[in-house]
Amino acid sequence: MTGLLIVNGEVEGVTGLDVRVDNGVVTEVGRALDRSRHEVLNARGGAVLPGLHDHHVHLRALAAAAASVVAGPPAVNNAPELAAALRAASDGSGIGSWVRAIGYHESVAGPMDAATLDAFVADRPVRVQHRSGVLWVLNSEGLRRAQVQDAAEPGVERGGDGRPTGRLWRLDEWLRRRVPAVDADLAAVGRDAARHGVTGFTDADPERSAADAAVLSVLPQRLHLMGPLGFATGGPVKVILDEDALPSLEELADTARAAHAEGRPIAVHCVTRAQLVLGLAAVHDAGAAAGARIEHAAVVPDELLEPLRAVTVVTQPAFIAERGDAYLSDVDADDLPYLYRCRSLLEAGVRVAGGTDAPFGDADPWASVKAAVERRTASGAVLGPRERLAPADALKLFLGEADAPSIVRRVQPRAAADLCVLHCPLGAALADPNAEAVRATVIAGTVVHDANG
Fold first, then answer.
1. Class for the domain spanning 52-59+184-408
2. Cα 170 to Cα 153: distance, rounded to the nearest angstrom
3. Is the pLDDT of residue 211 over 70?
4. CATH number of 68-176
5. SS3 of residue 345 by DSSP
6. Concatenated DSSP letters of 224-284
7. CA–CA distance, 432 with 412 (Å, rounded to integer)
8. Does the pTM of the predicted model rise above 0.90?
9. Which fold has domain 1-51+409-453?
């Protein structure tokens, strides 16, 4: 056998089609194609789509999440539940080993610091990550083990007495060098993603090394890697903007120009109005290069729609489902109509793509598709009904090219054979978007998942 033949599939609404794959590329789409010398996968009337691409994910953190305690909603909702989860993890670990928890939100037990964690677990080192991903909180034993007291990093928050409060801002890489590594099974991440029909990832970590890129290569999915200036991934240069320490317009524009000099676009993390205004101003000042991206664009007022046309917005519609109730209580009322916009961006001519932001969001892109269609919070409230997308448009958020996320890939000759085969026609799958509709996943012409196999 020299290739793969998917038979009796639905391709772009046309039923009864076969898809021939040779050397990792689609070579023919038609009826009753010759089956000789090809492995045959019978779609049995199911849709054959381009494989889904998650345009914003954090793969190392996602792998580590499986070895972590959940510290926030919906699994953990109050201080007693958090205490029980941390103590159970502590009791089950080896003597002196670290407890790692993720997904914390202030609705559980208020602002977190070392003293708060000490009341839950004092005899084992504990580190808890805020669900935003920007903050780690260590208990006193954790601070001692990580030798935070003498650290000079500006992200180490200190109280009036000069002692660390336990709150470490944007210090993931620094902390990773001071605490034991968790058991992170990247191969399991790849298998789970394949079950969701995912054939590619854009990893959005801002810091990158050659060793890191090599570790990620265990994944069967195609990888598009963001990274810092000077790291030749070919992917965007990722810039994170912090509200309390925003760079000047000139500094950010210089970073964009430096990225252009490396033949790379810039991807700016923007979750507030101020960040978005600055990010767009810098992109325009530097001369918007092809592939320029705004990550998240959590708040988009109407006056910024026009400048957004120069970039691609990579949004996270699942946050409405996962965090919408907290948004309704925590977000300024003036910003609520502008949260994680989708439909109005597309109508304004803005290029839009989707990412899960896993592990800070659900890693299943079908959950994001459903959220983009329904815009419904966990309690059932509808947040931004005008931003609802038609199911087919919601799916397209995850069907784009890695380096041009708004350009939807097609199943056609000369296209890469990265494919998602469904159990049913596309219309039936989109009536209730769910990963259970995925029958098989093909990457570079190889079947990496077959639910019937």
1. alpha beta
2. 10
3. yes
4. 3.10.310.70
5. helix
6. EE-B-TT---SSPEEEE--GGGPPPHHHHHHHHHHHHHTT--EEEEE-SHHHHHHHHHHHH
7. 26
8. yes
9. Urease, subunit C; domain 1 (2.30.40)
